Amino acid sequence: MLNIALSSLDSKSESVVQKALNNLMKGRTTLVIAHRLSTVVDADKIIFIEKGNLTGSGTHDELLQTHDMYREFATQQLKIKEGAL
What we know:
Number of domains: 1
Structural class: alpha+beta
Strand content: 5-15%
CATH topology: Rossmann fold
Low-confidence stretches: none
CATH architecture: 3-Layer(aba) Sandwich
Mean pLDDT: 83
Radius of gyration: 13 Å
């Protein structure tokens, strides 16, 4: 669990850590718990939990199309333009 440790990093340092983690995760099943969508956007499967309830699952693109709260988070965090959905 690196979420709190990563939250204090600047964007450049976070990118370096994310690249290292991506290399470590290749070819492995990995459970990632994240508040920042940039951490999981390339995952094979994302599980979205709201108030303790599983409310959606799928790839980033699938959730953008089908899950209102995920789409709202993605729009805010990833600077996705409304027309790109």
